[in-house]
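Audit log entry. Action: structure prediction of a protein-small molecule complex. Ligand: pyridoxal-5'-phosphate. The ligand was supplied as SMILES and no pocket hint was given, so placement is left entirely to the predictor. Protonation state taken as written. Sequence taken verbatim from the request; no trimming, no tag removal. Recorded inputs:
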Amino acid sequence: MISSDHSKFLVGNYAQPAIEIVRGKGTKVWDSEGKEYLDFTTGIAVTNLGHSHPHWIHSVTDQANEMVHCSNLFSIPEQVRLAKRLVEKIGPGKLIFCNSGAEANEGLLKLARLVGNKQGTQPKHKIVVADNGFHGRTLGALSATASPKYRTGFEPLLPFFDFVPLNDIQAFDKAIDSETSAVLVESIQGEGGIYEAEDHFLQELAAICTARKVLLLLDEVQAGIGRTGEFLGFQKSGILPHAVAMAKGLGGGFPIGAIWIGEQYADTFGAGSHGTTFGGSPLACSAANAVLDVIEEEDLIAKTKRKGEYLKEKLLQFIPKYPALAHEVRGRGLMLALALKLDPSTIVQQLRDSGLLVVGAGGYAIRFLPPLNVQEEEIDHAIHIVDTIFSNFELNEVSS
Ligand SMILES: *Cc1c(COP(=O)(O)O)cnc(C)c1O
């Protein structure tokens, strides 16, 4: 039961929640009545080390004792260290830190403006984005988001965005013209329902962008930081974009966003051109450095790949077993979706009541986003819960 003060004092921009979560350890969380759940939501791909990882707690506590915030007016050693580590993982370039995914995408859009306004005699303002993508809720990021589900009521939004279907290289080719400054896509569409950008699509898109001097921008806010079995999702295809947005998993639960800008455009933002009060604080960067430590020390990227294959194989078994319910498994690593033939919201509620937290997504999908260090027994347990709910559901609702 949640407090009646919830709806009295909080704006209802989220559907009224059914439970109150108060504590977490590893893959498990507990509500205020002491009920235990397996957390395959991870705050939407955020708590990638699970809850209360000892190394993360240690780093953040130590840093809180030293210095929490001092502003980017000063050099911050934890920030410099984090930037260097991210460059080593992504490619030659530089970093700007911020506080969220939407804010990181705003940075990419502003980079596209600066570059588009500088090129040639004719400024280039158009940005090509994918249908069914999601880039955040701020006005710029929302303008880059196609779905009416997010846009309705907030128009007019920013002009100059072209929406074309993901993986349709002809459509991108056609949309990119002499007024286009940038292309922005997710390597795996998260909110849209776990739809992967295909390797050959990203490779051809990168070639088109290079040939026409158009920025290729990747939104890795959800797919990034090890979740797909690569450090960033696009790395599977072997391309290197001009700039990348990251956030969700980067701080392991502490808010931090980042944009990596490749060498070619790394000095586009001059002094005073962009900034943030909180972004890249000592505390936020110590949290992100702790996440990278654990990913490296516990070999979490390789483990994510293996456990992802294990979970995917189990999910695939539901398709022949429950043909009236399940019809597709999408995604890779530990960014997986089981697509249903009906709106998944009732099933998501039933799974929660049975002790498994998952989150819906577009395309009638149930998303499975466990921590990257999830145990195989925990995957088995989650699969058992899904199996039980599906068999009851098929008996009661589909057959009646
Ligand atoms: C969640 C998400 C965002 C927005 O991030 P916020 O931190 O909620 O602002 C942007 N892009 C993608 C791909 C996301 O999944």
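Audit: result stored. The mean pLDDT is 97. The longest strand covers residues 180-186.
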